[in-house]
Amino acid sequence: MLQFSVEIPTTKTVEEDDEKFTVYVIKIRGLTKTIYAERRFREFEDLHKLIPVNTIFPKKVLQNRNPRVIEHRRLMLENFLKDLLSQHPISDELFDFLNLEQLQTDTITDVGDVKLEHAPVISIKDYVFNRSSNKKDYLPDSILDVFKNEIIVMIKCSLLIELGNGKRVS
């Protein structure tokens, strides 16, 4: 499951094909990587039509380049995105809108011929020792069994090495 936060910290004016418009710069912060997406107001409107939420959505106005209007929209669009993200699961449309596939590519680690595809583990302590809590984010038993078995193998190997060196193991 992807973990990330979203904000719209800024906007910028773009001129393209004799047309001037505002884009909203969306900052998507994952566990180890931050990505940005730039979207026009009409793209937000399209997303709102696909995934309506109870958030007040900004109206289209004639003076859309007025700095006050842009700032007001920026705040409302940020709230709109946060409301969409509070819905589970995240829709495919929102996934594409935010380019979240870029966050997934950050989780692949190359180790020789083996590719590990997982999110980085920040701390396993919370997962292993807080299983009695009502949290649903603990590691599945199959993963815990692998860790347990690996630890047992490491202990046995270190005991065999010490015995092979003539040391007495107590």
Question: Would you write up a description of this structure?
Answer:
The radius of gyration is 24 Å and the shape is elongated. The chain is 40% helix and 22% strand. It has a 3-stranded antiparallel β-sheet with strand order 1-2-3. A two-stranded antiparallel sheet has the order 4-5. Mean pLDDT is 76; it is low at 108-112 and 123-133. It has 2 domains: 5-105, PX Domain (2-Layer Sandwich), CATH 3.30.1520.10; 121-164. With 170 residues, it is an alpha+beta fold. A hairpin with a 2-residue loop joins β1 (5-16) and β2. Keywords: Cytoplasmic vesicle, Lipid-binding, Membrane, Protein transport, Transport. Residues 2-107 form the PX domain. It is a peripheral membrane protein. It is found in: Cytoplasmic vesicle membrane. GO terms for molecular function: phosphatidylinositol phosphate binding.
Brief write-up:
It is a peripheral membrane protein. It contains 6 helices and 5 strands, in the order βββααααββαα.
CATH topology of the largest domain: PX Domain
Mean pLDDT: 76
Cα-atom Rg, whole angstroms? Answer: 24 Å
The string of secondary-structure elements, in order, is EEEHHHHEEHH
The best one-word shape is elongated
* CATH domain class of the largest domain: Alpha Beta
Tally of individual domains: 2
Please identify which CATH superfamily of the largest domain we are dealing with: Phox-like domain
> Which quaternary structure do these chains form?
single chain
The strand count comes to 5
Number of helices: 6
Helix content: 40-55%
The CATH architecture classification of the largest domain is: 2-Layer Sandwich
Q: Provide the low-confidence segments as ranges.
A: 108-112, 123-133
How many angstroms does the end-to-end distance come to?
A: 44 Å
Strand order of the largest sheet: 1-2-3
Q: In percent terms, what proportion of residues is strand?
A: 15-25%
Q: Sheet bearing the most strands, described?
A: 3 strands, antiparallel
Structural class by secondary-structure content: alpha+beta
